[in-house]
Amino acid sequence: MLTKLTNLREDTVSPTRSEISLHVNGKTHTLSADNRTTLLDALREQLGLTGTKKGCDHGQCGACTVLVDGRRAVSCLQLAVAAEGTAITTIEGIADGDHLHPVQEAFLELDGYQCGYCTPGQICSAVAVIQEHAEGWPSAATDDVRPGAETALDAAEIRERMSGNLCRCGAYTAIVRAVAQAAGNPVTAETKVMA
Amino acid sequence: MKEFSYRRATGVREAVSLLASDSGARFLAGGTNLVDLMKAGVETPDQLIDVRSLPLGRIELRGDGALVIGATVTNSDLAAHPEVRLRYPALAQAVLAGASGQLRNMATVGGNLLQRTRCGYFADTASPCNKRVPGSGCSAITGENHNHAILGWSEHCVATHPSDMVVPLAAFDAVISYETVDGTGEMPLAEFYPAVGDTPQQETTLPAGALITSVTLPAAPVAARSRYRKVRERASYAFASGSIAAALDVDNGVVREARIAFGAVASRPWRAHAAERAHRRRPKRSVPPPTRSWQRRNPWRTTGTRCHCCTTWW
Q1: Yes or no, beta carbons of A71 and B35 under 8 Å apart
Q2: ipTM for the complex?
Q3: pTM (2 decimals)?
């Protein structure tokens, strides 16, 4: 009965619903959704990709972080209908088949989590942080933002750049080490970071 | 959230025509403020016109040295742009001091200017708020208001404009270009945010139905030596308790040019023209220490310390 009702609704042409084509982790999915559907809800409820987590649902915690065209974004403030035409990577698409991404390896090796709820968002964010730093993007922790004066991805830079991802267990110390190790900066990874 | 229809505009003229034909329509860019307020039931558009695909995503250095920033340039791309970091470092610093990496990748320059001037009560539909429901009263004046406006407020609203980006834009005399169905126009940022008065719901002077197309920063050599400083209640990812964008050009010990603007103190960025004038033409190091007679004539200036920037004795 519920299925029939749902189908009935989806078949009805409504200006507040859209046929959406989403390109997620290399595959294209077509779905019909209410325009109010966020990318986060579309991923979780319609595509079954529950690795992306819902925390605050207001863009403040970072648990729902995914990569949109290679850039990190909070999927809870991204409307699914507006995400059409972009390439989305979720935590399910970060690894290369059975080979974990270096960031995933580092989080496992260095215990970059406790309960694990924020971890998919932390990992997606960290993958982008390493990329952004490699491209020479400064941060609020960068003393001199002028081009050519780039600094190393040290603990202060990692903390600032990862500040959009909250961890209520407080695993930040290990998260900073894991991101540093994945970025190939073992000095920072070994540094004892005071919380 | 209220139901809405969705259209993706492909051209600026199409976008402004679509908006003009539906009084309940709003432009959608990054959505980091609008979608959040729609979830809270504060914003209730009937239609969203997505402007992210418009060809307004470029930053160009003009022949006269001005920098033209397209309205859909993301905060991240603005802060990472070499010309911005070289010519207006305080702007790059301000943008980087705002929000989080994820939000900066989504948010746009046009949307940043048009984000709602707000406080916690604005997003709380259970509380009176003159901005949300004109005439309903201000909850903040007698409530939680320790980070609220200290300049330019009225008894109707004490909310501050949350943007870091607009503070250096104010210091560097930014000009906003827009388009309506009637054509194009521009206005200085200094005239963009009106005084609060008794209409706090009126947050900008942008003509009805206008789409911001770009922000132009005139050539300003002084901006190459500029900084943005922000004080907030945690180390990162928080609105400012107070902030400042400042630029100083010192030639042979004399201040040739100074630019100062404050953030998070008012419903708009607060340009400190009087402070700028006080700095200009002041020798940096040749002010003698106060004499006894000077101290007698200026009894309130008794600390005996020197101002870091203008070296006046206080």
Answers
A1: no
A2: 0.92
A3: 0.91
